[in-house]
Amino acid sequence: MLMTVQDLSVVFETDRGPLHAVRGVSFELEPGKTLGIVGESGSGKTALARALMGIVKNPPGRIAGGSVLFEGRDLVQLSEREMEDVRGSQIGFIFQDPMVSLNPVMRVGLQVAEGIFAHDSQIRKEEVRRRVLALFKSVRLPNPERCYSMYPHEMSGGMRQRVQIAIAVANSPRLVIADEPTTALDVTVQAQVLETLKAIQTDSGTAMIFISHDLALMRTVADRIIVMYAGRIVEQGLTNAVLDFPSHPYTAALLAAAPTLKSRGRRLSVIPGSLPSPLLLEDGCSFEARCYLSLNRAECGVRPVLAEVGELGSSSACHFSKEVSVHSTNFGDGGEDVS
Question: What is the C-alpha to C-alpha distance for residues 172 and 161, in angstroms, rounded to an integer?
């Protein structure tokens, strides 16, 4: 196993008390595979990704418990200096917004070169330049020589994201974590960036953790999928099994709210209410107040644990997982003909 995460928790100290961003998350990732992590904003996806990379800013954040075993080493126990050796060389990271992560006053070629030099100070400058140009070609940047000397603001959003991918894979890492890397791109550029990522993964055998709120996108990207809600995993399993046969009402609700060709001209379903406050540690199910299955059942007052459901190998944290169906959700005005 490439990575094994066990009972990982992340807490941020605030003026109103501890904010529990990630709550007891556990999962495994095999070499060369892609794990998708989905959930609405505030579900803990980015906090989890930053914890895996060891870039949770302390203060105010900290890893409050758990372990992250990567090729046998617990990253949680490493010093910052040791983690600097891991980041970039063994684990690459693709941020959501390249205009924030890229240095606006440094040419992009030098930014990629900087990451190579950081892990091989003896390499010659001429060799680094050749490697950067080869990387630009591999991520399908047009005219690599010209791109090498450009600044981020001179590039399109898709080109900047390709530069980020080049930085992430510059040292042939075993794992790349991509935090919503296509959110700010139009559909055509999004498809091109995804195609680039998949090609690199196929050529190098790199594993990937792909974070998104787009369930449809996960079907084309991920081998397995994790659904997060209020900092916890509420469902996980093979991607097609989770998306075709959801076993948690939150997953079913997300699927019911997603636009499809069949939903054209019809009002989409919505999930009532909002995420519970991350400042609270509730005793029961965190989704109870928004769930169409709860119906004030006493069982929902006890927090459910992940348990295997059915024959497809999925796990769900729901007392009534056998009653879940994406077709039975009844949220808001979903399904009403508005044409």
Answer: 18
Helix (H) or strand (E) holding 236: strand 232-238
In the chain, what are the domains? 3-222 (3.40.50.300), 246-323 (no CATH)
**Residues 95, 164: contact at Cβ < 8 Å?**
yes
Q: Which long-range contacts (CB under 8 A, 24 or more apart) does 135-140 make?
A: 135/166, 135/169, 135/170, 136/109, 136/112, 136/162, 136/163, 136/166, 138/166, 138/169, 138/199, 138/200, 138/203, 139/163, 139/165, 139/166, 139/169, 139/196, 139/200, 140/192, 140/196
Cβ partners under 8 Å of residue 163, min gap 6 = 98, 102, 108, 111, 112, 136, 139, 141, 147, 152, 155
Query: Looking at the predicted structure, is the pLDDT value of residue 115 above 80?
Result: yes
Q: Give the pTM.
A: 0.90
**What are the residues facing 36 on neighbouring strands?**
210, 225
Q: Give 147-195 pLDDT, tens digit per residue.
A: 999 999 999 989 999 999 999 999 999 999 999 988 778 888 888 888 9
In which band, very low, low, confident or very high, does the pLDDT at 142 lie, cut at 50, 70 and 90?
A: very high
CA nearest neighbour of 21 among 75, 66, 63, 74: 63
- The Cα–Cα gap between 208 and 182 comes to 15
The token pair at 327 is 């077709």
Q: What CA–CA distance (Å, rounded) separates 280 from 290?
A: 16
Residue 135, class by beta-carbon neighbours within 10 Å (0-12 exposed, 13-18 middle, 19+ buried)? buried
Instruction: Output 271 or 232, whichever has higher pLDDT.
Output: 232
Task: Count each helix (H run) and each strand (E run) in the chain, helices first.
Answer: 11, 12
Per the CB < 8 A criterion, the answer to whether 306 and 315 are in contact is yes
The mean predicted confidence, pLDDT, of the chain is: 90
- CB-based contacts of 236, cutoff 8 Å, min separation 6: 27, 224, 225, 226, 227, 242, 306, 314, 315
